[in-house]
Amino acid sequence: MRVLLPLPVVVPLIAAGISMAFARQRNVQRAVGALAFVITTGASIAMLVDVDRHGPSAAFMGGWSAPVGISLVADRFSALMLVVASPVLLAVLVFAMGQPGTEQEQPSFHPVYLVLAAGVGLSFLTGDLFNLFVAFEMMLTASYILITLGGRRDQVQSGMTYVIINLVASTLFVVLLALLYASLGTVNMADLAVRMHTVPEGVRVAFALLMFVVFGIKAAVFPLFFWLPDSYPTAPTPITAVFAGLLTKVGVYCLIRTQTLIVLPGDRIGGFILVIAGITMVVGVLGAIAQDDVKRILSFHIVSQIGYMVLGLGLFTVAGIAAAILYVVNQVVLKSTLLLVGGLVDHAAGSTRLASIGGVARRYPLLGWMFLLPALSLAGIPPFSGFVAKLSVVQAGLSAEEWAVVAVSLVVSVLTLFSMSKIWAGAFWGEVELVAEPDDATSVRFGGTLPMLLATGGLVVASLGLAVAAGPVFGYCQRAAADLLDPAAYVRAVLR
Amino acid sequence: MSLLLAFSTALLFSLGTYLLLQRRLSRLIVGLGLMGHGANLLLLLSGGRRGVAPFIGATKGERVADPMPQALALTAIVISFGVTAFLLALAFRSWQLTGDDLVEDDVEDRRIAGALAALADEEVADIEAMAAAGADAEAGGPALGEEDGP
């Protein structure tokens, strides 16, 4: 079992090396990339089954046991995140292969994308805060390259914002690490949890806040979200999709992990987090309503939806955190799907500005369906998976008697539906109005090349499957949440 | 010694923050570098008092320095070196494209500001037109010149 733990990190890294060596053979690169994600998906599923049955397991790199060495830890939460992330990474890769542009023109796309995947995997698995910093840097450096790949003027401009805000966040992260090490003498998360009670209460709350800020920038919570809607839409579609689906959710994962594991139950900043959650939801959705471009609307929705996850966390109940986990899982799939559909619209209609396109659903009915289903799900319409996730958040909020933030979340949900119908009315309905037509045969008939349609369709089916399997998935999320709120088993697994 | 280092950390952070608030990319990058140095110095400070090099077998019971923060700082330095190199390349590309190293206005902000200005212009035009129409009505004649009056 412990053999499996490093695989989601090591396999993409080895694949990145191979991919680099075969920079001129596009087909070798493609096969290596796809194979790497198939292997990580298999390994993550095996890990999930094992962890659900036998509890958290830890592996120690280089033969040094915790807290000195670097430990990789899989528990229910991290295994679930890996199981969701790996297929999404595969789907986006397949989409990129079919899309004319980035993947076909840039030999460096595959290696960098694989390094990004390794960074995401390491962020989920690491049991060490400093190693998390390294994982973030791996992931972010890869994302800097991906977001500016091509070096167009708008990319450089928005990429610069993205790089600088993330560097500031990384500097804060180093400061956090230094302060933690100075006061507790360790950076291992389980060890931090054990030793946290030795420092005064004020310092502990300050750590909780500092961790919230550091990971809040990555997760794009209010007021630290402003960089996201500016930088995401300018990148090529598959890259935006993977950023939207995974990178912000890595931030949310770290928020949930650190606020439950390292922060002691008495020092939790639940009320503060709930206020932030409410504002994040409202500001995000209002931003979305004000936009008139498919990709920009969807980018603001990322921010808005982060609010729901943070809401679940802020309740600090099993139901709340279970709802947050379900929401994260759901959003990883939905957001990637919607942005890939945005890319298909761009491909089929030549633009994503609502003012210049129209009637896409009439011309390409398949695209209409592929947008409609996840969009309704995002707005929380039954019977889709988004409804299940929203319902669980609302129920958790009601049982914790946080009426105000629940009311806000319901209003935001209506506004989400409004902005989705804005995209629908602007781009899909009405007279057929296209800026440019695609030139290959499949695209002319269906609106996208075969790999693009397969990848997006696969994700749509996955999001529907999430609704069908909602019961078991939610049961699993509840077990994961119970583990998070009672980290004794996690700590035991690391510090045997 | 620690106090001196603590003050240098504070100085690096304040200078870095000041530079980060500037509009020139070159200053932003220097500011980020200074803040990174401040953070690394803080990391080094977190190891506590100074001591001899911590090699197994080489020490004779003296106080040894904590090697852990040094290893962490070294990693952080390497990472920030790589990222700064990337940032410089990006800044160079930006200079190639725009011929300037001022951070540009946000496109969206400019668009909204433009839309607002256009809206304001329209309103001003409307008000002028209304005023003109009102003046015409008062003067009881179509000629604009009449409102100059006596």
Task: Give a summary of the structure in a few sentences.
The complex is a heterodimer of chains A (496) and B (150). Chain A is mainly α and 496 residues long.
Explained architecture:
The complex is a heterodimer of chains A (496) and B (150). Chain A has 496 residues and is mostly helical. Chain A has one domain (7-494). Chain A has helices at residues 7-21, 26-54, 76-98, 102-105, 109-125, 129-148, 153-184, 189-195, 201-219, 227-231, 237-261, 270-290, 294-315, 318-349, 360-363, 365-379, 385-399, 403-428, 441-446, 450-468, 470-485, 488-494, and strands at 57-60, 71-74. The longest helix of chain A is centred in the middle third of the chain and has 32 residues, at 153-184. Chain A is globular. The mean pLDDT of chain A is 89. Chain B is built from four helices and no strands. Mean pLDDT of chain B is 81; it is low at 141-150. The interface between A and B is medium-sized, with 32 and 37 residues.
How is the secondary structure organized here?
The complex is a heterodimer of chains A (496) and B (150).
Chain A (H helix, E strand, L loop, with lengths): L6 H15 L4 H29 L2 E4 L10 E4 L1 H23 L3 H4 L3 H17 L3 H20 L4 H32 L4 H7 L5 H19 L7 H5 L5 H25 L8 H21 L3 H22 L2 H32 L10 H4 L1 H15 L5 H15 L3 H26 L12 H6 L3 H19 L1 H16 L2 H7 L2
Antiparallel strand pairs in A: 1-2
Chain B lengths: L1 H19 L4 H21 L21 H32 L8 H33 L11
Helix pairs in contact in B: 1-2, 2-3
